[in-house]
Amino acid sequence: MNDPKVIKILGAGPSGLTTAINLAQNDYKVIIYEKNPDVGMRFHGDFQGLENWSSKEDVLTSVKNMSLAVNFYHKPFYSGYFYSLSSSAHVESTEPMFYLIQRGKGAGTLDYSLKAQAIKLGVSIIFNTSLDYADVDIIATGPKRINMMAFGITFVTNLKDIAMVILDNDISPKGYAYLLVSDKKATLATVLFEQFKLGGKYLEKAIEKFKQISELDIINAKKFAGYGGFFLSKSAIREKKIYAGEAAGFQDFLFGFGIRYAITSGYLAAKSIIENVDYNALWRSKFYHQMKTSLSNRAFYELFGNTIYDYLMERTRKSKDPRGL
Predict the structure, then answer these.
(1) Is the separation of the CB atoms in 258 and 251 below 8 Å?
(2) Looking at the domain assignment, is residue 93 inside a domain?
């Protein structure tokens, strides 16, 4: 960095924008370079879950404590229905299990909210532009390897607000399928951890299964596909460059929930610069143990397949605290 008060960031996703917002609030000049023509181009207005079970502190409180405004669409879900090949479970929680948010380039999405917050603080975002890693300070470009893919549809439905998850290798090999409905809008997808070329086939199976277990109607369906990547490394600093979000491999290995990791790592990247502290020490203290645990869970999940899915249904039914489970 030639001028310590000028920071260049590659990537305008949640991690890059969170870093920029926090730096700008501390009088840094921030320039973000984004290869796409706008933020959220990987997504299609689809619903995703901002998980709320990995800490006692509510995730929205955490977001606010990381100097972000919660002015994006966020709907709390306190219950959900889970299905395996031969079992099912309905869980309810006194605290939100997750917040339903939207991703993409439209108004109300997480991506557009963070973009607006950054621009208001004077952050420059240069779209349709990518720089060499050597020319920037922070890498927040998203996944560099693909470990999982989601194949899904967004649509309109008459189904009531609901969250449903299916664990079945015949529908989502080593992954899961989900249906999220809010205010007559819906997202249905199957998340695969292998056999990506058969994504269309597995999506059709997932749609048929959800029709069997609910009164699902699908109006104006639009297909989409997404991807994610993760890896575990002891360092997120390479050649004096800070890596944040999925570019650093920060992701839940079990089910692929990465938004909270992205935002948190972006905040910690900014904190390391503002306070001149070790970025690796910050993120390791915050969530390295959680990532290692999710890696172990992923190994068991893949090893035992449908057998462990039924076990999870049993544990879920008996649990008095679904967030703790």
Answers:
(1) yes
(2) no
